[in-house]
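Module 6 notes. Inverse folding takes a fixed backbone as the condition and produces residue identities as the prediction. Think of it as a translation problem where the source language is geometry and the target language is the twenty amino acids. Below is one complete input and output pair. Work through it position by position during the lab.
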């Protein structure tokens, strides 16, 4: 039997000794796997990654280009052309279909492959022992049986059964919800031990906060605990985005309009005695004129352009329609820590029986002055102050390292802040740990709300305890004072509880500390303690958040803070960032969100109006999202943990944190913030509005151009006049001179004042009734101009049909080009607006003018399009008549009579 054949997965590895697990995977911890065995196992188990959305093949992307309703109409027009012997028209329409598909194919292929490249850039690596040597390899290339080396700061890349552990601790909050790091060991555990208590295992997606260790991979990829959660998220159905719904509705409407107009003209012509062939040719021309061939191309490019703009601003969008959906967002449910704040705690205040002390310095700054009543003090001069600082350093699982780029911190931000405060007082963790080595740790327990450590001190043990004041003060029987130790009375407890409330209301995160000295490390740590005092720390708001929230408020977007922190702290941060006024609004406790099915209408209104929700669980976020969605809101929600994934799926726009977020959260989200900043969300909302406005603008432009083409042909056929524009000429216009200006409109930077307008209604379509009237009005003005030039070419210039058709074709073309300037926003400046200042518009006009001149003066192309030199007078007529629609549109804009 080959070695590969013996490589098997094992059930419940935490119930086996480390040696049994190593034997089951046929691997030595000291040497690891060899290269041939790694290759064999990779072939058997596959890549170590969570399942991604199936990468689209080239053929899939190509085939999807032909699923458009608009392309279907073009295919019908081509088939009819071939059926009636109109080979040139049929070939030309087929060419249009191919060109249309090619442009869409290239655009989507670039977008899909670029997103795949971005995903690869985000991959992590792991240190692995193979063939007796330690290698750093990409996480995707790990296989079951690999020996992985772990140390503080590492991200765990697969599920491991530990074989060595030295003071090893892991942050498993993203997977289990446990808020503090979990201590690890290598002993055997019972089969029924829950996930959160499997101390001899570490899991994919978690992080090592302290210590070092080694483990053998027992599960990889989708077989990991993280993979199982991810597979559950994949089963959730995603709703079709509003933009997709609107474009589909518009496509269906275009089908009926096209069929109706074609049938009406064909039937009326045949009843009037015209030839069937002529009516078929006319119907084909009308069908071609009705179809805005550039619509799918421009929509894709506009969305892709918006995606890349957002990527440059630290927002990665996972699918194109989500770019637009952001623009409709009117409620943002945002986390506090790390999004509104810096997620960098700083100890600023210490309250002791001997007095209150302030500490200078921010974040990881290791220099900071200690003050009391405004005067500088030396920390070592105050015995109680030194006691509480030492307790904060000893009862701690974080670590500080002095790297080449400065201080590097690993661990919980609260514990990092305590270490930094110690360094400011000259208390280094490593030196203190050497003097007072840790002999036992009692991990934080959510029920006791405390953590304790036992450190050897001479022949005894020093116990350091930290936790919530209510818990610590309940198990403290004495209190340290400048005069010495004394009994703690009820009045003392009331005074400290009041002090705690005052510190919390000022926005501080508060921890209480106590200590005692015992003879043995087996003593109960939470009994007969000596209370030391309180430590207050602040997580400063991000500087850019206040103007971002103000921008949201001006834009009619409600910002709601949803945090797991206590209400007093949440309200203080909300005031600091401008979310509420000084007197503030109510901060609803997560406990009030229980039993949502029993809420009264009054309860619902209270929840809808509340700007702050504190002590909220990930499950309760689902109720909040549903509440606002039922109130006809489009909801964006931030999240970072595995437990946030269902809520990210449920929200209209799920926003995951790129720096501190888990892989499951990022995969469930529509957008990932690379910098975890709230200001990036606001930028994304603004860009989403710009994109929708651009889409609406180029749809209005394309449809008004196409309506003009329909009216030109339809009116001419009804009066039995020659067709002013031939089918191939219409195809040329729709594919060339319509598309490039529309593209330019689609990639415009947008109006700087767009965030000063309220969000649009959830049900508002791309084309409102008023905009359909604008389409008809613009189309009619262009039609009058084209038919007028056609008639003048016959009557005034006395030209033949060939030149007259050329003049009407060129008038239509140039009128459509100048029409792009009618797309500026109402009330904008005539000369300086977001259309005239769009460089792409001027480039598109130059290109289209060149193409039109080529169509007239390049013999081969002119013959296919049936175009001739219109003469100097003809050119004068073309230019003059083509400016009439533009002039009319500008007058209406100045009078604010049209959108």
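Target side of the pair, the amino acids:
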């Amino acid at each position: 039997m080959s070695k590969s054949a013996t490589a098997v997965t094992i059930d419940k590895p935490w119930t086996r000794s480390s040696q049994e697990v190593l034997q089951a995977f046929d691997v030595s911890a000291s040497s690891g796997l060899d290269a041939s065995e790694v290759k064999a196992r990779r072939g058997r188990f596959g890549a170590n990654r969570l399942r991604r959305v199936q990468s689209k093949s080239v053929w899939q992307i190509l085939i999807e280009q032909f699923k458009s309703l608009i392309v279907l109409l073009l295919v019908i027009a081509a088939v009819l052309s071939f059926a009636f012997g109109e080979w040139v028209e049929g070939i030309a329409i087929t060419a249009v279909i191919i060109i249309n598909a090619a442009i869409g194919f290239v655009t989507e292929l670039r977008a899909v492959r670029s997103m795949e490249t971005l995903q690869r850039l985000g991959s992590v690596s792991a240190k692995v022992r193979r063939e007796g040597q330690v290698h750093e390899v990409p996480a995707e290339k790990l296989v079951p049986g690999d020996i992985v080396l772990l140390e503080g700061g590492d991200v765990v890349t697969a599920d491991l059964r530990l074989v060595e552990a030295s003071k090893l601790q892991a942050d498993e909050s993203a997977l289990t919800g446990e808020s503090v790091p979990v201590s690890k060991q290598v002993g055997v555990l019972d089969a029924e031990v829950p996930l959160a208590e499997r101390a001899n295992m570490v899991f994919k997606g978690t992080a090592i906060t302290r210590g070092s260790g080694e483990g053998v991979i027992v599960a990889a990829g989708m077989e990991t605990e993280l993979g199982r959660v991810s597979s559950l998220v994949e089963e959730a159905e995603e709703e079709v985005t509003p933009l997709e719904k609107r474009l589909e509705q518009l496509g269906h409407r275009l089908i009926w309009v096209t069929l109706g107009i074609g049938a009406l003209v064909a039937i009326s012509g045949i009843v009037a005695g015209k030839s069937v062939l002529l009516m078929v040719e006319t119907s084909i021309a009308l069908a071609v004129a009705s179809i805005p061939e550039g619509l799918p191309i421009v929509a894709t490019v506009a969305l892709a352009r918006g995606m890349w703009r957002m990527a440059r601003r630290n927002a990665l969008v996972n699918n194109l329609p989500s770019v637009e959906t952001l623009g409709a967002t009117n409620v943002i449910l945002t986390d506090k820590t790390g999004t509104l704040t810096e997620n960098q705690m700083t100890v600023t205040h210490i309250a002791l029986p001997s007095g209150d002390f302030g500490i200078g310095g921010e974040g990881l700054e290791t220099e900071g002055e200690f003050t009391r009543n405004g005067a500088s003090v030396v920390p070592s001069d105050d015995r109680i102050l030194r006691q509480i600082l030492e307790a904060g350093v000893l009862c701690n699982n974080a670590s500080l390292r002095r790297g080449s780029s400065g201080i590097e911190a690993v661990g919980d931000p609260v514990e990092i802040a305590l270490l930094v405060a110690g360094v400011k007082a000259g208390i280094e963790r490593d030196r203190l740990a050497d003097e007072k080595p840790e002999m036992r740790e009692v991990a934080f327990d959510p029920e006791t709300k405390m953590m304790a450590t036992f450190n050897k001190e001479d022949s005894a043990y020093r116990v350091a305890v930290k936790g919530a004041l209510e818990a610590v003060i309940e198990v403290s029987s004495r209190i340290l004072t400048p005069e010495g130790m004394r009994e703690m009375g009820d009045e003392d407890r009331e005074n400290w509880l009041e002090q705690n409330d005052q510190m919390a209301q000022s926005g501080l995160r508060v921890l209480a500390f106590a200590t005692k000295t015992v003879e043995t490390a087996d003593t109960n740590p939470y009994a007969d303690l000596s209370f030391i005092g309180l430590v207050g720390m602040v997580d400063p708001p991000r500087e850019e958040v206040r103007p971002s929230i103000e921008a949201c408020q001006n834009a009619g977007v409600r910002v709601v803070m949803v945090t797991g922190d206590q209400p007093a702290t949440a309200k203080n941060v909300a005031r600091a960032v401008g979310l509420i006024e000084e007197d503030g609004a109510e901060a609803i406790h997560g406990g009030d969100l229980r039993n949502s099915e029993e809420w009264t209408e009054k309860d619902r209104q209270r929840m809808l109006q509340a700007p702050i929700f504190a002590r909220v669980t990930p499950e309760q976020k689902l109720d909040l999202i549903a509440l606002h969605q039922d109130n006809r809101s489009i909801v964006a929600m931030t999240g970072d943990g595995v437990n946030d994934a269902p809520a990210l799926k449920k929200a209209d726009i799920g926003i995951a944190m790129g720096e501190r977020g888990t892989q499951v959260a990022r995969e469930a989200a529509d957008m990932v913030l690379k910098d975890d900043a709230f200001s990036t969300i606001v930028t994304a909302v603004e860009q989403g509005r710009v994109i929708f406005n651009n889409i609406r603008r180029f749809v209005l432009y394309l449809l008004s151009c196409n309506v003009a083409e329909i009216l030109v042909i339809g009116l001419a056929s009804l009066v039995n006049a020659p067709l002013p524009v031939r089918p191939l000429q219409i195809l040329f216009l729709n594919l060339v001179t319509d598309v490039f200006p529309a593209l330019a409109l689609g990639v415009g930077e947008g109006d700087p004042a767009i965030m000063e307008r309220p969000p649009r209604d959830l049900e508002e379509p791309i084309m409102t009734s008023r905009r359909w009237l604008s389409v008809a009005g613009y189309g009619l003005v262009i039609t009058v101009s084209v038919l007028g030039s056609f008639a003048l070419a016959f009557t005034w210039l006395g030209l033949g049909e060939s030149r007259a058709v050329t003049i009407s074709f060129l008038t239509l073309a140039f009128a459509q080009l100048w029409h792009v300037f009618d797309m500026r926003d109402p009330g904008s400046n005539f000369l300086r607006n977001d259309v005239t200042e769009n460089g792409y518009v001027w480039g598109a006009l130059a290109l289209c003018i060149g193409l039109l001149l080529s169509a007239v003066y390049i013999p081969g192309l002119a013959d296919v399009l049936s175009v001739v030199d219109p003469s100097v007078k003809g050119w004068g007529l073309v230019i003059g008549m083509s400016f009439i629609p533009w002039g009319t549109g500008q007058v209406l804009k100045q009078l604010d009579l049209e959108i």
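Reference fact for the lab report: The domain at 317-341+542-676 is CATH 3.40.50.1000 (Rossmann fold).
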